[in-house]
């Protein structure tokens, strides 16, 4: 291989170690004083007067060179220039080099000036008439040489992938804030990733025409097509953790039209530690397109509430329950009791948290830190739940256990009653018996003016909690959720499976709309409700605008790199029993206001809307469930929740209630 080969040259630079830098510095320290003297005396031309000048100061130049070698190497060594890994040199290392050269130059200049003093000059010190400016010129030359050699290694590291023939992908970073700057810095520090940042895109006018980490800001989001074409960009990274779904959606649309792949940093809800790395960059997901401004939680207040307390989570293995357990565990409770009916899910979350368990065990196996207790129990068995509460005496309870799938509960109303209503009453009764200080129940927006068995069962459970708050005077509250993205049984997962199978994607109705929230948002709301609640309230997250399910399906198809109508069809299958086109958030008669938390509403008088004969109506409901009499269950629900309007059900005899058949008109609208 020719010595002129770029690959050979880059490999040679990367092979340099600190011992090699010491040798190169020694060579520079021999050469730079001579060059500085020639520049100072204008002796670069071969003239007799130039050589005369050199011979006149030869003794001083030799003495200065030897003194410079000894003094500068000592300073360089003390400043740590031979204990650095120069592949990752940064501004800090450049500053260290500059300071080492300046300090050694000042010391040499002091020595040269001191040699001019009469007492020193009398001894014939060789530097008594040595030009002072040579010291300064020597320092500048040395700074260029020492810094240039070391930073050439840093530059070679950046060009190493090119020398190896690695395919380097040009990247455009959308977002010139802290996250974008950290992403670019990591790309520069890790050339082996094969990513070369060519520019930033940012809508902030103050950031236009500037450079960040030597990468230019090329314009606003409307300039993405131009920048992608001009710089041959193959990938766009959206580095805006606080951007809303509307912004993300527009950027993704522009990237799709431009024909470049869009990837994204997670939102703040996923960046729990606030750190941003390239490992977190992933493909755009549907939750990114629906992202809202992050819900800011009073972390200190939540931690203060849970720290040192015994906390119990029912349904602890579910999507919301398991994330609650993770967040609670970080608040350092005295004990976290994870209760659930499904042993596999409880096993998984217990093992996950046990791997993060704080505290240190002693020789007897006792731990100095929070205790983690998994409990397998079914909330439908009241005596079993009471035994658990009496044994562990929880102080704070988060009740997430419930059946939540609307179509399944339409076909199994008995289970909806025994689990969602009677199970909640069992948990609440046990909580009251042992004096639980705070109780938070997970409800749903389907409990508002319910049309489904699942919705009316959760509304009935809310009434049970409100009664407990009224009786105890303690903060027993409910939290209403919209649809949770990424939870088990989510419509998103169903759509993804249908897309993977080649379609069609089935949507029940073209105008069906739902409120959506992410799991982190849901968990933050639950924790905040535990802090804000005083008793009997219903808390609701400000979830912005409802989203059309058809639009959701279309976005998922396009995010999969496919086209609606060409690669995958959307088919309207008709509304199912219990479904309605629009979900609501508040029940008529509820007075709702914003809390001190900007993104959370509460219905302050929800606890006052209790029927006088709640116990009698609940007993009738439970009798109907015990006898598996669906007609009695429906009638009991109507008496318990007057606003309940079941949709798509008819009595077929023997106490059975069956869903009505539906047809689809030519325009996709479901007809009874």
Describe the structure.
The chain is of the alpha/beta class. The chain has 23 helices and 28 strands. The strands form 9 sheets. A 9-stranded mixed β-sheet has the order 12-9-8-13-14-15-20-24-23, sandwiched between helices. The protein has a 5-stranded mixed β-sheet with strand order 2-1-5-6-7, sandwiched between helices. It has a two-stranded antiparallel ribbon with strand order 3-4. Helix 1 crosses helix 7, helix 5 runs antiparallel to helix 7 and helix 19 packs across helix 21. The longest helix has 33 residues. The radius of gyration is 36 Å and the shape is elongated. The chain starts with 5 loop residues before the first helix and ends with a strand. The N terminus and C terminus are likely disordered.
What is the averaged pLDDT score? 78
Q: Poorly predicted ranges (pLDDT <50, ≥5 residues)?
A: 1-5, 8-16, 357-367, 650-672
| Outline | elongated
Largest sheet: 9 strands, mixed
Class based on secondary structure composition and strand pairing: alpha/beta
Quote the distance from N terminus to C terminus.
81 Å
- Using the 3D structure, state the CATH architecture of the largest domain: 3-Layer(aba) Sandwich
Helicity, in percent?
40-55%
CATH homologous superfamily identity of the largest domain: NAD(P)-binding Rossmann-like Domain
Cross-sheet strand order for the largest sheet = 12-9-8-13-14-15-20-24-23
Q: What radius of gyration results from the CA coordinates?
A: 36 Å
Q: Give a count of the beta strands, DSSP E runs of length 2 or more.
A: 28
